Amino acid sequence: MSSLDLTHSGKVRNSPIRPGVGTPRRYAQQHSRSHPPPPSKGEQDMKIGIIGAGNIGGNLTRRLTALGHDVQVANSRGPQTLSALAEETGATPVTVEEAPRDAEIVVVTVPLKAVPDLPSGLLDGAADRVTVIDTGNYYPQRDGRIAGIEDEGLTESRWTARNLGHTVVKAFNGTYAQDILDRARPAGAPDRIALPVAGDDAAAKQVVRALIEELGFDTVDAGGLDDSWRQQPGTPVYGLRADVEGVRKALAEASPERGPDFTA
Q1: Topology, domain 8-20+42-257
Q2: What ranges make up the beta strands (E) of 2-63?
Q3: What parts of the chain have a pLDDT lower than 70?
């Protein structure tokens, strides 16, 4: 097991008992006027591909386009089903195969059971050193039994990375979708919350932490992918809304044993 480095930048935030919970609404209508989103940093605008347009994927599309990023979004049903989201946000609806094309960041936000069905060579057309964010969680009741997780003891994101053939950074998996819209705060705000972020690639992890901070949340370095069990469903940090110290404490208190609700 790799060592756990609970370093941070600012304060903390986390969320759901079922990530992705929340009814999407227009970001402009949702956000509190007293807490405007961080300003767009034009020189840092990136091309971002989002695979999955459910609650998490949809709200990340809303926020990232509002910040000025060039977002391509895809789902399993085809770009023609994303016209409303595209009209609302200015994102480009594309096929799953097209979403990573030239992208500097690719967000994979689909049910775990769908990961093996993603196209082979999915990331071949992405930018060099593309950063891949994994927001997924293993719910046996939804995903069926996954032997790599249950029998081999792989963390959920290690299993996802194996299937993608590319390392990932685990983030947003314990976040209420609605919080992505509603709970952004300026750096230093007393009620700014943080997200745990786990990954093996230090440079990729820093890219993700910077993006989360731009979205209006602080981050805590939760270690490598083999440590990412500390933020999986059923752990103290999963669904937690707390500051940096609260998230660090919750990560440290986690047990590697999966609870009965999260085993098949």
Answers
A1: Rossmann fold (3.40.50)
A2: 8-9, 47-51
A3: 1-44
